[in-house]
Amino acid sequence: MSRSTRYEDPLDAIWLECASRLGLRVQRSGDTYASSTGQGDLLLGDGASLDPDDCIAQMVLHEICHWLVCGPESLDWVDWGLDNEVDRDVELEHATLRVQAALLEPLGLRDVFAPTTVYREFYDALPPDPFFERSVDERSCIVRARAGYARRLERPWDPTLAEALGATADIVHSLRRFRSTGPATDLLARAREPRGLHRTGIPLRSPDAEGAYRCGDCAWQKGDPKGHLRCVQAKGARVQADDPACERFETTFDCQACGACCREAYGAVDVSAKDPAVLLAPDWLVRRGRRYDIRRDEHRCAALRGGQPLPRHRPAIAGPQGESEQVSPPFFIPSDEPFSCAIYEVRPQTCRDFTRGSTHCLTARRRVGLSR
Fold first, then answer.
1. What is the DSSP pairing of strand 41-45 with strand 25-29?
2. Where are the alpha helices (DSSP H) in 53-159?
3. Which residues pair with 36 in a beta bridge?
4. Measuring CA to CA, how many Å separate 220 from each of 153, 208, 223, 249, 253?
5. Domain residue extents for the chain
6. DSSP for 18-81, written as a single string
7. What is the value of pTM for the model shown?
8. CA distance 335 to 308
9. pLDDT (0 to 100) of residue 29
């Protein structure tokens, strides 16, 4: 064998390539555990500085989950804008762990690639559905986590992240099937059977999750003209009412507890010059050439009431661009005060045409951290 060749761990190869495709340059160093420079470099500890249960796959995935939660702008911030020395950003760290668990749970890899830091106790205590709200105190963290999880479907993460997770699952489960026994300390032996798939290809709801729900009870099922049920979450795929629910199941939700379409999910509401609202609510409109927009109050419609502001994430260390702050949703969470519209009776046709349970509704709810 040529001495110019060397063995490379296949899981390392997958996640180093994943990082590269996402525009992250991974460097190994004995002077750090894991850090991002804010300039596209991801610094990870070398072999001598890591613990036996550390692995490149988990470390790269965890950093990507930070990026998802803190938003695309955080690529330009040192350590994704987080302060690791004090408790300022614990909620963002917890949101990151929720995303990590949500990505790994359906693949049976949640325990295999668990964090190895002081946050392991929090991670292990998460319910089967990491986004399940056990108390109202968790709401803002879960909203941030779901918004980050939704970004996996956007560039640059899609499809690279899903491909890396799939390839990792293939290798781990191949090894698991090949080796019937192994030492109790073997990290890969912690893999479990992947969760089954719904007929749409979406993972089934966790068998340990609360309740036994069916597609016919889901807010995202719609009847078509032929009387068949279609799933908005699965891009209109046909389902049966008695099918067991997938992990994206939601009971019917109230628009007044959501408000996503009126706030940061979309940046503008286009209004025709012929719309009655031009005469009935002129003070709420802004002229844009031959058309109008509803006036905005920063990240939400000026006519919207209710909700609670979510503190914006600001980087702990100013980067080359100077002082900056979060520019990606979410910026609000539902509160005891329902969302309502000050001009509901004379609202523009654009608002009237927005349908609860539609594809646009799902997109809006994902962006503000209310839906998977």
1. parallel
2. 56-70, 90-104, 120-125, 139-150
3. 42
4. 18, 22, 10, 8, 10
5. 10-162, 255-367
6. HHHHTT-EEEEETT-SEEE-SSSEEEEE-GGGS-TT--HHHHHHHHHHHHHHH-GGGGGSGGGG
7. 0.94
8. 6
9. 86
Give me 72's structure tokens: 């695309």
In tens, the pLDDT along 229-276 reads 999 999 999 999 999 999 999 998 999 999 999 999 999 999 999 999
Cβ–Cβ under 8 Å, residues 61 and 148 = no
Q: What is the pLDDT of residue 108?
A: 96
d(CA 336, CA 130): 23
Instruction: Please name which of 201, 18, 12 lies closest in space to residue 106, comparing C-alpha atoms.
Output: 201
Of 95, 78, 91, which Cα lies nearest the Cα of 146? Answer: 95
- Give Cβ neighbours of residue 200 (< 8 Å, ≥ 6 apart): 231, 233, 234, 237, 239, 246
CA distance 160 to 257: 34
**In which residue are the tokens 């980050």 written?**
148
Specify the pLDDT at position 186.
Answer: 82
The pLDDT, as a whole number, for residue 53 is 86
Furthest C-alpha separation in the chain:
82
pLDDT of residue 1 exceeding 60, the answer is no
- Containing 174, the helix (H) or strand (E) segment is helix 160-178
Nearest to 341 by CA among 226, 222, 234, 258: 258
pLDDT one-digit tens code per residue, 137-179: 999 999 999 999 999 999 999 999 999 999 999 999 998 888 7
Which element (helix H / strand E) includes 13? helix 10-21
Note the pLDDT tens digit of each residue in 176-219.
Answer: 888 766 666 788 888 999 999 999 999 999 876 566 799 999 99
pLDDT band at 319 (very low <50, low <70, confident <90, very high): low
The Cα 221–Cα 249 span in angstroms is: 10
Task: From 203, 210, 21, select the one nearest 104 (Cα to Cα).
Answer: 203
